Amino acid sequence: MSGEELRLHRSRAVNERLHAAVPGGAHTYAKGDDQYPQDLAPVIDHGRGARVWDVDGNEYLEYGSGLRSVSLGHAHPRVLEAVRRELDRGSNFVRPSVVEAEAAERFLATVPTAEMVKFAKNGSDATTAAVRLARAVTGRRRVALCADHPFFSVDDWFIGTTPMPAGIPPETTDLTVTFPYGDLAAVEALFDRYPDEIACLILEPATQTEPPPGYLQGLRDLAHRHGSVLVFDEMITGFRWSEAGAQGLYGVTPDLSTFGKALGNGFAVSALAGRRELMEWGGLRHDGDRVFLLSTTHGAETHALAAAMAVQTTYVEEGVTARLHALGERLAAGVRDAAAAMGVAGHVVVRGRASNLVFATLDARGRPSQEYRTLFLRSLLTGGVLAPSFVVSGALEEADVDRTVDVVGQACAVYRKALDAGDPTPWLGGRPVRPVFRRKV
Predict the structure, then answer these.
(1) Is 295 exposed, middle or buried (0-12, 13-18, 19+ CB in 10 A)?
(2) Three-state secondary structure call for residue 1
(3) Residue 283 CB neighbour total at 10 angstroms
(4) How far apart are CA 189 and CA 209, in angstroms?
(5) pLDDT band at 3 (very low <50, low <70, confident <90, very high)
(6) pLDDT tens digit sequence for 280-291
């Protein structure tokens, strides 16, 4: 199937409307049309389960739904029922709703390593609140983040460290330092270089690789020995690693942690959770200086909190995390077999935990290649698979995974032809896809 056969004429027209009204043509850079092959960036009309339909009527199996946020599948009936129930009762009031207490108690029962929780609408607000709280508690200014993890916040303390630091004062960026994942000695050296200056260590507890034995506990011990706060960013690992997050799976409790994405199954809700001793600094029941922790007009919208409660109930009662792992394992095995069958096993590489799979596209010399990623994405799209990653949702069926593997096999056949030709250009259909973080447009 060619790009023209996909009938993306309406999508292209809507993309032009988006660029005319929205900087970047999307409200999240990772959803931009520069992340997709030229003229093959579908604009979505609706979704149900693991499928989405674009404005041209094309149907796709979707992976990485909502940037990993829709882990149960689109329009999940249990979640929608809970949301509708609250919509009829009002969504936002001048005082807290009883739903706020219920949602907090449900979260703390699901993530028992946390003692208090405060909700917000997006992950950046939660991670920045964690950093602010750590600075307030420790009286220190520096933040140490894991350099191997791609994203923590839209706020200056993080974005200033990326290739897109325009508009951020250097003196702000200078307060952020970095460390590599899995290397305790490097963190120890960082504490030695900045004695009594580092307010917190912030990292994802795991990403594409499992933490080395003793690493997370070692980080906790180092942070506490040096008077610092340990923060786990569980935006992705929360629920996908276990219902209680990666901290529940690995048995290491951070001082603070942040959750989002899967928590609302597409509805806007995030959470900052942690030890009562620290979280109370943002409350009213202490004698110290007040900390402006989190205070958002829409942070406690009742329908979003109802969605979060329904998501947690569904995960626990239906064993969703185990299902995600089983589906991911089936997909990873199938993709590896398909790549091997076409002689590209060293070039199309599946990585990560089964519930959070990504793929790498490598050139003839084994280097990451945006050109080969473009070729691969183009083949997937024309085969009816929308997959910027291979992150599964619980709505997928085994037959969907098997169909995806068939499409991957077709993509790998094209990949082999490009490798044999020594140039993927004839199969790109236009400019290659671009990384999100880059200095120039």
Answers:
(1) exposed
(2) coil
(3) 13
(4) 23
(5) very low
(6) 999 999 888 899
